[in-house]
TrEMBL record:
InterPro entries found in the cross-reference section: Mannose-6P_isomerase_type2, NTP_transferase_dom, Nucleotide-diphossugar_trans
GO molecular function: mannose-1-phosphate guanylyltransferase (GTP) activity
Record protein name field: Nucleotidyl transferase domain-containing protein
Organism: Candidatus Roizmanbacteria bacterium RIFCSPLOWO2_02_FULL_36_11
Domain Nucleotidyl transferase, chain residue ranges per copy: 2-286
Length: 360
């Protein structure tokens, strides 16, 4: 079985730690490891490093070599430029199809926290066995919702189809991306909805065939790349990838699939999105009023704050702070209300257009 971890995000919601030249997936957000290192670690030892592939942009190759020395460099699938997720998935699947078309594969994203890796891997391996026997299936791995999130996608699942190794597999009914507050509350109370993590298991051949059927404009380019001679591979990759359409994987493939080919797993794997400062605090806290800190930080009479200090020569001292995010890097000090974290992406976009674009 193969695992593909996608690590191409820009991480603007984790600015100023996450920057264009060193985005969030390569920074130490939890402890002393980056999220890409954590994503690889939680697959081992069940997955050998030779069976783990990393998809990201070419300019991050040296970071991958430094942070993931155990992964063979030929397993780094490097986009010459950033496109949407549709072309990125198509490229990896097209390259792997030549050698491993009948093997099961799990698609993962690196900017998450999974607190229950054992059940997570049990689901992956069980789903892998299932699709090995039924190669026309795609299995979504969902997280049992902990609250009525408006920032995540949701999956509505139907009847239980089968149980294998204690894992229940359900039929698919519908998808909903980022519902409003009323819808999110209904989904949470319904108990037939799962958070959509973007994780799924299928066979390489099934995903490849869906690309050929629903996004042939991508696969024409991908096949030229995959079939290029080694000596000319980079030139063909640069030329063909530049002409790829920008389209999300959901629009390109997932929304087109026949529901009868899809199963849903709804389990508690301890999953959290850590792609924004407020969601990072939610993931790490034991209770809401807890302060979450990293680096040299002293807080007094303060509650419900996240304070990260990446400057070893300075101590951050806070008094009477409440519901704040404070991030100190070598050249930027961010101070904001926790509730304003969602505005960071717009702020960073504005910075990139002005005199302060060096900070992005």
């Amino acid at each position: 079985m193969k695992a593909i971890i996608f690590a191409g995000g820009e991480g603007k919601r984790l600015w100023p730690l996450s920057r264009t030249n060193s985005p969030k997936q390569f920074e130490q957000i939890i402890g002393n490891k980056s999220t890409i290192q954590m994503a690889v670690d939680r697959l081992t030892p069940e997955f050998h490093p030779k069976d783990i592939y990393i998809s990201t942009v070419k300019k991050y190759k040296q970071v991958l070599i430094t942070q993931l020395p155990q992964i063979p460099q030929q397993n780094f699938i490097l986009e010459p430029e950033k496109k949407d997720v549709g072309p990125a998935v198509g490229l990896v699947i097209g390259i792997l199809y030549k050698k491993f078309k009948d093997e099961p594969v799990v698609i993962l994203w690196c900017d998450h926290l999974v607190k229950k890796p054992d059940i997570f891997k049990k689901i992956i391996l069980t789903a892998g066995d299932l699709v090995s026997k039924d190669k026309n299936k795609l299995i979504f791995i969902g997280q049992k919702p902990r609250f009525a999130s408006q920032n995540l996608g949701w999956i509505e699942f139907g009847d239980k189809i089968k149980t294998i190794n204690g894992i229940d597999f359900f039929s698919l009914k519908s998808f909903k991306y980022r519902p409003d507050a009323a819808e999110a509350n209904l989904f949470f109370k319904n108990k037939q909805y799962s958070w959509n993590l973007g994780y799924f298991v299928s066979t390489i051949s099934f995903i490849y065939e869906q690309f050929m059927r629903f996004s042939p404009q991508i696969m024409v380019k991908v096949n030229k790349i995959a079939n290029a001679d080694m000596a000319d591979f980079d030139n063909v990759l640069n030329q063909e990838y530049q002409q790829m359409p920008e389209i999300s994987f959901d629009n390109a493939i997932l929304e087109q699939l026949d529901p009868k080919n899809i199963y849903v797993v709804n389990e508690d794997i301890g999953w959290s999105d850590i792609g924004a400062w407020d969601s990072l605090k939610d993931a790490l806290q034991k209770h809401q009023l807890e302060n979450i800190t990293q680096g040299s930080v002293l807080l007094s009479e303060s509650r419900d704050n996240l304070v990260y200090n990446y400057d070893a020569k300075k101590t951050i001292v806070g008094l009477d702070l409440s519901e704040m995010v404070v991030i100190n890097t070598k050249d930027v000090l961010l101070i904001t209300k926790k509730s304003s974290s969602s505005k960071l992406k717009k702020l960073v976009n504005n910075l990139s257009k002005g005199d302060n674009q060096h900070l992005v």
